[in-house]
Amino acid sequence: MRLRFAPSPTGALHIGSVRTTLYNYFFARQRDGALILRVEDTDQDRLVAGAIDSIYEGLHWLGITWTEGPQEGGPHAPYIQSQRLPLYQKHAQELVDKGAAYYCCCSSGSPPSVRSRRPVTSSPDTTGTAGTSHRRRPRRARRPSHT
After folding, report:
1. Taking the model in full, what pTM does it have?
2. Which of helix, strand or coil describes residue 68?
3. Distance spanning both ends of the chain, measured CA to CA
4. Residue 9 CB coordination number (10 Å)
5. Furthest-apart CA pair in the chain: how many Å?
């Protein structure tokens, strides 16, 4: 059994994160499992310098240890999300090549309401990402009202 704690280094260790980590830590220990630390640093705009060190210190102060993580390593490295991007891109491209996913034609700056109205195209858009979240069914024609 593998359980994880995935903090986002956007500030100090939060009490809600501590609660979740304690649950996972004790559950993993009870079942001879592993607790994994994976840093969720994908929101680069909100990263706070020193936040991951603060999180490490807080967890160590609580006596929480983990089996795998950025500093400890392990069989499923890397444990920092931004370092896994090439792996995700490879698998996303495989899905596109198989026809199981498509390139999103939305720009990251578009509001969700605008993105959902754009037509789905089969051509890659360098500003978009591969995914399936914006695919829409064709709209049905409205029936004329009989009033």
Report:
1. 0.64
2. strand
3. 62
4. 21
5. 71
Does 78 sit behind a cis peptide bond, omega within 30 degrees of 0 on the bond before it?
yes
CA atoms 45, 78, 85, 40: torsion sign: negative
Contact (Cβ atoms closer than 8 angstroms) between residue 62 and residue 18: yes
| Burial of residue 17, with CB atoms counted within 10 A of its CB: 0-12 exposed, 13-18 middle, 19 or more buried | middle
Query: Which contiguous run of DSSP H or E holds residue 93?
Result: helix 85-98
Q: 15 near 59, Cβ under 8 Å?
A: no
pLDDT tens-digit readout, 3-52: 999 999 998 898 999 999 999 999 999 999 999 999 999 888 998 999 99
Tokens of 132: 């399936």
Whole-angstrom CA distances from 37 to 32, 34, 49, 104 are 17, 10, 18, 31
pLDDT in tens, 86-118: 999 999 999 999 999 988 877 766 666 655 555
